[in-house]
Amino acid sequence: MDLTSSLLVLGLVCLALLPFAVPGLLEVLLSLAVSSLLVSGALYLGWLPEELWVSLLALAVLAVITALVLWKPLRRLQHTGERLQEDKGISDFVGTPLVLAAHTSKTQASELLFSGVHWQVKLDPECTDTELGAGDSVVISSAQVGLLLVKKA
Questions:
Q1: Global pTM?
Q2: What would the pLDDT profile of 11-37 be if each residue is shown by its tens digit?
Q3: Please, which of 15, 31, 76, 110 could form a disulfide with 104 given CB 3.0 to 4.6 Å?
Q4: Which of 112, 108, 106 is nearest to 134 (CA)?
Q5: What is the pLDDT of residue 91?
Q6: Per-residue model confidence (pLDDT) at position 81
Q7: Distance from first CA to last CA of the chain, Å, rounded?
Q8: For 106-140, how does the pLDDT look when each residue is reduced to its tens digit (9 = 90+)?
């Protein structure tokens, strides 16, 4: 297999692995995929000489550039709305009505004793209210160990 084909295969393998990547590795795989496909295309078109050291240098430079360019947009996409990775053991809590014990907002968590455990409680980012006070009725919309996201009942 020649260098052009090898870089093409590397790019395609990285693209195939993207759905399984965790944040942090996702950016690395995406930048490696994009840069290897670009270098493979440049080699195919004859824009780069088909020498290993030139290809590796171009791959490294493009990987760094694409990582820097893609880092912030990908981080913003990953952090839009706070959806929790729900634990199957506590996902049954979703839909449970509660009464807040303290003031709660989307940015400031409060604490609540529920099911014998002290939980951090925050407003769901999709909730139209920006804050709720003590005594307000809410419903659990998402749950993770130690944290409940709630919205107004």
A1: 0.53
A2: 999 999 988 877 778 888 999 999 999
A3: 110
A4: 112
A5: 67
A6: 52
A7: 62
A8: 888 899 888 778 888 998 888 888 888 889 999 98
Q: How far apart are CA 20 and CA 29, in angstroms?
A: 10
Sheet with 137-144, strands from edge to edge, namely 97-99, 137-144, 147-152, 117-123, 110-114
Residue 120: what are its φ and ψ, rounded to 5°? Answer: -80, 135
- Other beta carbons within 10 angstroms of residue 147's beta carbon come to 15
Residues, the chain: 153
Question: Residue 143 class from Cβ within 10 Å (0-12 exposed, 13-18 middle, 19+ buried)?
Answer: buried
CA gap 24, 77 in Å, rounded: 13
Which two three-digit tokens encode residue 26?
């996702």
